[in-house]
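Practice problem 4.
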């Protein structure tokens, strides 16, 4: 998540002070991601340093209103218009856990998958129930919440399907019972060589 560009996109609608920015961010993202005020102010200071926002005078309550510059508007527009690049090789704890379990002797990876599937399915059911219960109001904030919740539901559905796929792969993989022994050859110093389809980078 880009806090920097998110704050710029909000400030493009009008000047805001720190707590106001946090409130606006939560309103516009279904309260799915909380930002602490310290993070907001440190981001604003960096944006000011980069010439993307400027700070105004304090009001009678001591609130300092920040406003976007022309350069900041340009960056916000560019961010909103550009696709999100999913970084290859992003660490996924569950995928790493299952990959390790599948290569460790004595670990019942099928039991691990079964336990995870129950947890993932229960979370999916909770999310679906929340959508049904919250389907009455149709305002802008509700729309933001539903977009975020839909994304979470789709991800949870994909996780359950992926667990089924992993279980099937393990069942028919010829090396499933072999495991991996610790290598006796001393590894070389430095970064390990990248291999596999996710190794390509910039």
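Answer key:
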């Amino acid at each position: 998540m880009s806090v920097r560009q998110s704050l710029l996109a909000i400030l493009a609608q009008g000047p805001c002070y720190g707590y106001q920015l946090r409130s606006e961010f939560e309103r516009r993202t279904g309260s799915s991601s909380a930002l602490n005020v310290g993070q907001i102010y440190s981001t604003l200071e960096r944006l000011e340093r980069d010439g993307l926002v400027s700070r105004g005078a304090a009001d009678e309550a001591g609130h300092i209103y920040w406003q976007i510059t022309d350069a900041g508007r340009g960056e916000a527009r560019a961010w909103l218009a550009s696709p999100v690049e999913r970084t290859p090789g992003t660490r996924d704890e569950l995928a790493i856990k299952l990959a390790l379990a599948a290569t460790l002797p004595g670990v019942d990876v099928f039991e691990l998958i079964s336990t995870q599937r129950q947890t993932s399915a229960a979370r999916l059911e909770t999310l679906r129930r929340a959508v049904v219960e919250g389907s009455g109001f149709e305002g802008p904030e509700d729309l933001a919440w539903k977009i975020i919740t839909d994304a979470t539901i789709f991800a949870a559905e994909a996780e359950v399907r992926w667990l089924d796929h992993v279980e099937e792969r393990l069942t028919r993989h010829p090396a499933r019972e072999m495991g991996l022994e610790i290598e006796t050859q001393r590894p070389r110093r430095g970064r390990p060589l990248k291999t596999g389809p996710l190794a390509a980078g910039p």
